[in-house]
User: Fold this.
Amino acid sequence: MKVVFAGKAGFPYFKGAAYDRIGLLCQSMENAGIKTTVLARKGIMPYGTVYPSRGTFEGVEYLYVNGTASRKNNYFIWLINRAIGLIKENIYIIDKARKGELDALFIYTQYSLNVIMYKILSKLFNFPIILNLVEYRSSFNTKNKFSRIDYRVFDNLVYRFADGYIPISDFLVEKIKNFSTSYIKIPAITNPDRLKSVEKHVDKEKYFLYCGFAAYIEIIHFIILSFEKIVNQEYGLYIITIGSPERISRIKKLIETSSKASKITLFVNIDYEDLLKLYKSSKANLIPLRNETKDIARFPHKIAEYTASGNPIITTNVGEIINYFMDNDNALIANKYDEIEYSEKMKFVIEQPEKAKDIGERGRLLCNKYFNYKSYSLPLKELIVKLKNHEKVG
Assistant:
């Protein structure tokens, strides 16, 4: 069996949850004997850098159809290259379908027109399309009027154009199940083996850790305010982020004005191996969720990586959390998004370190069962086979 994963440029060079999920889903299918190729129609890496336009990463083949993984510096050349990439992507998909080398097309995109285009190709050349759903786009605030309209169209209309789905949450399952039963719910996933060989930092202080994009500045501020309520001076707070210079500057100001500024360390754009070491060396990893549609619909990728570290996560009772975790069993869960309640869970780690360690270990065992990419190899293969045979998936 052969499948193509399209719609999201950047794999494998651009690091982030979206790209890691693409790779892990493909590795999951490779584990079931399905040949996968990640397709990109345009390059997005910095101009002037050299990245192979095709190759294999962690067993997954990738191809930039326009011949480069880098973004062109000249806007008009970039625009022309983008158009050429779109044409070449279509040619590639059509060629594979005609040769009988395309059993399914997986899509990871936020743009409605992409799904519509792929749907037309699927009807003309008889292959199913499977849509990866990780967010509810309508819940995102944006100043761009076109994006606001497109998000609504995507969530309210374009869902229906796919043949199969991979929703990440119960919220998204509810959005699709009225018109399709052809789906597999797959939560945040990771490769637990990545953490097994990682050694802890022996010279690091005791610390709590938060990792997330600088765009989540509200959550970062919440974490800082919660941390300020802890009297203990032995523990620090590590904030790991990536983002625009303007947003990084805002985070630095939040830290500088904190009453515990001397205990807060900011890391920006660190290497992945260093990131894993910091995960594994922390006393607890932080991932507070807000009781709003955006957080209810998603399932942060970091939860899978956090639990794989064997250290406890501290989160809030929102969205998917209740489906996998129990407070004081395999996670520490604040009942609501409240600074005082959240800080109490952080204090638990300080005051009862052995119990916190046991909670982290049970979280790791849960990760091996539910967040391990290998757990979904056979269900993915079954979905592809049934869609290809025009069967319903229960």
Notes: The chain has a mean pLDDT of 91. The chain has 15 helices and 13 strands.
